[in-house]
Design goal:
106 residues, alpha+beta, three-stranded mixed sheet, 3 strands
Length: 106
Amino acid sequence: MNADQILAIQQDIIRVLKNIYDPEIPVSVYALGLIYEINVSEEGNVVIMMTLTAPNCPIADQIVDNVREEVSTVPRVASVVVNLVFDPMWNQDMMSEEAKLELGFM
């Protein structure tokens, strides 16, 4: 895959992530700022670095599994690894303007 194809896959992944919601918050994981990094290799292997709004989130496994499963449906994605990280810690400043508006922070 060339750089343009990798960029297209990343954009497709972002579109998918914008449709994955934290079940406790009516905003997508992408708009919440939970996705820190999306890496796509030339072979189509994807590594996503993401966090949660709180380290002790009771539905962490459900959210991570949902991200992995949905991203794996993107064409040309060969595999998906989701790494859950808490450095830096998530804070409200990481949310998009849309998410802040939706949650009443603006």
